[in-house]
Write a structure and sequence with these properties.
alpha/beta; Quinone Oxidoreductase, Chain A, domain 1; seven-stranded mixed β-sheet; six-stranded parallel β-sheet; 7 helices; 15 strands; globular
C-alpha cells in the first residue's frame, strides 16, 4: 500500500509497505479520503512546536500527521466490538504521532477511535469528523453555560475551525452569528455557511462592536486563532462568555476592564459524546464539512496541498489515496 512519510520541511516520500493487520480491539480501515489539519501540517513543515513542550522529529512517522479520515472497515481485530466489516466510519480521535497515520491507503485504528458516519454523503463531508468533534467539545460546554441559544455570537478566525464553529452556533440557535477574519475569501465562505455578517477585524469597527470599557454588543463567542491579539480583541467585545479554542502559546491578560461579567472557558479535550454530537449535526444537514475542502489532490501531490494551505489559497485540502 501507499503511505506518505514527511522527511523534512517540504520534502516527503511515498513508501510502499505491507497492508497492516488489526490487533486486539482494532480495526483496519480502507481510506476513502483524508483531509489536512492546517495546524499540524504547517507546524510540521516549519518544525515549529504545536504547543509548549512539543517537538517534531523527522523523518516523521509514516502517515502522520494525517488524522482526519473516512473509509470502510475491511477487517476486525479480536474484541473489536460494536462494529462490522463493511461499516463506513471516520476517525474521531487522533491515535498520536508515534503510530502510522491516515495519509495512506489503509490505516489501523482502535475500534474505540472510529465512529459510524452516513453512507450517502461524499467522503469529504465526513472525513473531518475529528475537527468537528473538537469543536463539539467546546459547544457542548457552551450549551451548559447557556452561551449560544438566543445570543449574538462572534467567531474569531474563519479557517476550518471557525467555519465549523459558526455552523454549530447557527445550529444551536444563536440569534446572530458574526465572523472575523482577514481573508475576503474566507469571509465570503462564512456567509454561505450561515454567518449573518463577516468583518476584517483590522478595520475600524468601533461603532458596530464597541470595545471595553464601553458595553460590548456581542454576547458570547469563540476564538479559533489562539494568538494573544485575537483573544484579547474578543475579550474586549464579548459581554458574557468567550471560549478559547485556538491553541494557546502565550499568556492572555484579563484586565480591570474585563470585570463585571466576562467568563472565559478553555478546551475540555476529546471525548466520544462530542463526536456523536458532531455526527448528529451532519446527519441533520446542519453541519457542512464538505465545503471546507476547497482543493482535492492525490497523495502524491502532498507538498502542493500544503503549499496551498501556506499561501491561504486553500481552507482544507482533501487527499484521495486511490487516485
Amino acid at each position: 500500500m501507499k503511505i506518505v512519510q514527511i522527511t523534512s520541511g517540504r520534502e516527503f516520500r511515498i513508501l510502499e509497505v505491507p497492508i497492516p493487520e488489526p490487533g486486539p480491539g482494532e480495526v483496519l480501515m480502507k481510506i476513502e479520503a483524508v483531509t489536512t489539519c492546517p495546524q499540524w501540517d504547517l507546524h510540521l513543515r516549519h518544525n515549529e512546536p504545536m504547543f509548549i513542550g512539543h517537538r517534531f522529529h523527522c523523518p516523521y512517522t509514516p502517515g502522520q500527521p494525517g488524522h482526519e479520515a473516512t473509509g470502510e472497515i475491511i477487517a476486525l481485530g479480536e474484541g473489536a466490538a460494536g462494529l462490522a466489516v463493511g461499516d463506513r466510519v471516520s476517525a474521531w480521535r487522533d491515535a498520536g504521532a508515534d503510530v502510522p497515520g491516515c495519509y495512506a491507503q489503509y490505516v489501523v485504528h482502535k475500534a474505540a477511535n472510529v465512529i459510524r458516519v452516513p453512507e450517502n454523503l461524499p467522503p469529504e463531508a465526513v472525513a473531518p469528523v475529528e475537527l468537528a468533534m473538537c469543536l463539539g467539545s467546546t459547544f457542548l460546554m457552551l450549551k451548559e453555560m447557556n452561551a449560544v441559544k438566543g445570543k449574538r455570537f462572534g467567531v474569531m478566525g474563519l479557517g476550518p475551525a471557525g467555519l465549523v464553529a459558526l455552523q454549530m452556533a447557527r445550529a444551536e440557535g444563536a440569534s446572530e452569528v458574526v465572523g472575523f477574519d482577514f481573508s475576503p475569501a474566507r469571509r465570503q465562505l462564512a456567509l454561505t455557511l450561515g454567518a449573518d455578517k463577516a468583518f476584517d477585524s483590522r478595520e475600524d469597527l468601533s461603532e458596530l462592536f464597541p470595545a471595553r470599557p464601553a458595553a460590548p454588543k456581542l454576547d458570547c463567542g469563540v476564538d479559533c486563532v489562539g494568538l494573544k491579539v485575537s483573544v484579547e480583541y474578543m475579550m474586549d467585545r464579548v459581554s458574557d462568555v468567550l471560549a478559547l479554542f485556538g491553541v494557546q502559546r502565550e499568556d492572555y491578560t484579563f484586565a480591570v476592564r474585563h470585570y463585571g461579567g466576562l467568563r472565559l472557558c478553555g478546551y475540555k479535550g476529546h471525548f466520544r459524546e462530542a463526536a456523536e454530537y458532531a455526527v448528529g449535526l451532519i446527519e441533520k444537514g446542519l453541519l457542512n464539512l464538505a465545503a471546507l475542502s476547497t482543493h482535492h489532490l492525490p497523495l502524491e501531490r502532498y507538498a502542493e496541498g500544503i503549499d496551498l494551505l501556506e499561501k491561504q489559497e486553500a481552507v482544507k485540502v482533501c487527499f484521495w489515496p486511490w487516485h
